[in-house]
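Postdoc handover notes: sequence design on the structure in folder B. Input tokens:
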């Protein structure tokens, strides 16, 4: 059950097919080469970009994380034998059932998002993606949670930044990219 203290990773669903994989097969993939520092979170919140048509530019679903493993793209998507990245490593995040949020969280002015850490409290109160950004006085608590997760799991980097990083650098580290250009999902191919 999502609680205010739950650690949430907002992540990109590149295409409607990925939503169906999450819904029917119960997993989500993240390329190791572009993965955030910590994937051992409590929940994933799925950002739907423009490829979702009128349902794009929003978060409508979350799912509880049940575990993760490192595998190859070919093992995940066996119907794509000739994909250029078939042999590359991916995190396979096992998830529970998709849960629809009471109201979607809209992108508003945002156009690009790959990953963003937030909490259950922020997720439950948010109307826009900007509302998910952890405020400065609470960043220390978020970084502490991420450090604890990173050090308790051997798959992750433990060199998380300190909480006194300038906001623009912190936003970049959290995967927040504002742009008016069309969304680029190539990092998930």
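Designed sequence:
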């Amino acid at each position: 059950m999502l609680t205010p203290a739950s650690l949430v990773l907002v992540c990109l669903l590149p295409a409607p097919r990925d939503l169906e994989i999450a819904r029917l097969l119960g997993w989500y993939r993240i390329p190791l080469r572009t993965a955030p520092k910590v994937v051992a979170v409590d929940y994933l919140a799925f950002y739907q970009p423009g490829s979702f048509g009128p349902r794009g530019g929003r978060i409508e679903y979350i799912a509880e994380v049940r575990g993760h493993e490192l595998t190859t793209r070919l093992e995940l998507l066996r119907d794509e034998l000739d994909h250029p990245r078939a042999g590359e490593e991916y995190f396979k995040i096992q998830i529970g059932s998709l849960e629809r949020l009471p109201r979607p969280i809209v992108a508003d002015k945002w156009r690009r998002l790959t990953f963003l850490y937030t909490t259950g409290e922020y997720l439950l109160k948010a109307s826009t993606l900007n509302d998910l950004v952890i405020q400065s006085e609470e960043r220390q608590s978020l970084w502490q949670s991420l450090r604890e997760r990173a050090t308790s799991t051997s798959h992750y980097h433990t060199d998380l930044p300190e909480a006194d990083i300038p906001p623009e650098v912190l936003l970049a580290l959290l995967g927040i990219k504002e742009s008016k250009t069309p969304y680029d999902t190539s990092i998930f191919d």
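Context for whoever picks this up: DSSP finds five helices and nine strands in the chain. Don't rerun without checking with the PI first.
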